[in-house]
Description:
This protein is an alpha+beta fold. The protein has two helices and four strands. Strands 1-2-3-4 form a four-stranded antiparallel beta barrel. The model has no long low-confidence stretch (mean pLDDT about 95).
Amino acid sequence: MLSQVGSWVEIAWVAMTPAERAEQLPESSKTVPVVARVKGFAMASVALGAELSVKTLSGRTLSGTLVDLEPVHTHSFGRPQPLLLAIGGFLREELRS
């Protein structure tokens, strides 16, 4: 698949090689590279795995390997907390009175 100019994409690049990492790190950490991943708007039309520059929401231009087209947020804040769900309405009522 190809990215389209202006489409939302994710790029990645090696920010630090294992040789550049701190010596005091555990072996399991210092033997792998640090990979940076950034989302932004594609500045060219390229295939997955190709080099691409993106313009981030903060206006920076960064380059890396195209790893995802239209990436989604995969994080979670956990299960809804009943107390927090109820308190919003209560506080709105208090502010109105």
